[in-house]
Amino acid sequence: MAEIIYIDSLDHEGLEVYWRLTEAQLRSRLDTEKAVFIAESPKVIDVALRAGYTPLSMLCEERHITGDASGIIERCGDIPVFTGRRELLQSLTGYTLTRGVLCAMRRPQAPALADIVSDAKRVAVIDSVTDTTNIGAIFRSAAALGIDAVCLTRTSCDPFNRRAVRVSMGSVFLIPWTWIDSPADLRSFGFRTVAMALSDDSVSIDDPILTQQSRLAIILGTEGDGLSPEVITDSDFTARIPMAHGVDSLNVAAASAVAFWQLRVRGT
Fold first, then answer.
1. What contacts 200, CB < 8 A, 6 or more positions away?
2. What ranges in 169-251 are assigned the alpha helix state H?
3. Of the ranges 39-48, 57-66, 123-132, 230-239, which one carries the lowest mean pLDDT score?
């Protein structure tokens, strides 16, 4: 049974994860066994719990303990639940709680690339995308549209960033992901790569040569400059989404949804 702790200051052990530690510090707290991430809102926390993630503590508006958060509190066992009035929690943490509930959860180690792509047919590769909103939206589209795994270059934003988790609506917990050094890493697992970019030698995204690939890695680039010339040159294909009305391109999150749907594995 959860331990309900009423707070009126920041002097409670364990409360620092909600206000003092940066995202980088949450990722690397002393050692990997103490790394955590923060999930927001009962719905997102529910997705994480169903996916097997371990809750460590919760920060919850008092009114939600017997309301929206009652079900997830029951499922979290004997963790501490810090609580108080909405205004108090906002003044202590410095930000408004989304849906009144935050949950600190154990951050697992990233799996090996081989473990998440061995049976995959379609993989998304996120290269140097640093906007947390875009990361969350890409994961949500990937989970919804049949992508088997997501790989991120180490210059990309952390998918367990608090805002990325929230925007994804918990989809970061539903699809396996890991870090890679280069999109070319996928080739050793039998993938051909397609760079989403505007270039003179690109093919339209509906070109049959793309959907005919048994294993395809779809590479998405940073918001401003797109993919580097080196990544584009090294890819097996370069694909573009045809634009109308003189629009030059889509936001990377919107482009990912179009690409994932168009390049999905078709029924046989």
1. none
2. 208-211, 229-234
3. 57-66
* pLDDT higher than threshold 80 for residue 99: no
What does the DSSP 8-state code read for residue 80? E
Residue that is written with structure tokens 């029951």 in the block: 74
- The answer to whether the CB of 103 falls within 8 A of the CB of 38 is yes
Q: Report the distance separating Cα 26 and Cα 48, nearest Å.
A: 17
Tokens of 172: 């970061």
Contact 261, 143 (CB under 8 A): no
Question: Looking at residue 106, what is its pLDDT?
Answer: 93
Query: CA-based angle 72:70:74, to the nearest 5?
Result: 55
Q: Is 17 helix (H, G, I), strand (E, B) or coil?
A: helix
CB of 217 closer than 8 Å to CB of 193:
yes
Tokens of 81: 């639940």
State the pairing for strand pair 101-106/36-40: antiparallel
Report pLDDT digits (tens) over 40-87.
989 999 999 999 999 999 998 888 888 888 999 999 989 999 987 777
- Residue holding tokens 């935050």? 102
Gap between the Cα atoms of 206 and 204, Å rounded: 5
Separation of alpha carbons 155 and 200, rounded Å:
27
Q: How far apart are CA 124 and CA 194, in angstroms?
A: 10
CA-based nearest residue to 238, from 267, 212, 205: 205
DSSP-derived letter for residue 70 is H
